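User: hey, got a sec? need NUDIX hydrolase folded
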Amino acid sequence: MARSETESERLKRIAILNARLPRTRAIAQGVLRDPKGRVLLCELSYKREWDLPGGVVDPGESPATCVEREIFEELGLSVTVGRLLAVNWLPPWRGWDDALLYLFDLGVHHAGELDPALYLRREIAGAHWRSIADAAAHVAPYTARMLEVAADAEHPLYLENSEPGRTR
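Assistant: Yep! Here you go:
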């Protein structure tokens, strides 16, 4: 008869697995639109490409909570996460390991709701409303592709490197 493990043994086993199993980063971003249908892009102080609002999910934090928190901290804007637009697996890029990016619909907001005085300046140099077509000139290629495929999706998509993923 098999002996059940003690709580101490169970925690040791989990610690070993946590140390050895892959750890994929989680990123949460949102598509925030203005009444003209343009999307909000953040001009970041620490990299050349602009990006969608959001950020890296903290340990123990849900992606939906993350995107709401990040947008409040960085832009001073309170948003409520809407429906999930896509989950996008991103391969290693520019020294970063792979990641899962959760893209949420954040609804429509008016440009006047953004106050540059509230921006977290160590991260946000500016915020700009751009059409999805114009976004490609400012964002990383994977972000441009993801916006083209997922921003108006009728149901959540699974993407790999911003391309439709496997269907079988």
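Quick note: The chain has one domain: 24-164. Let me know if you need anything else on NUDIX hydrolase.
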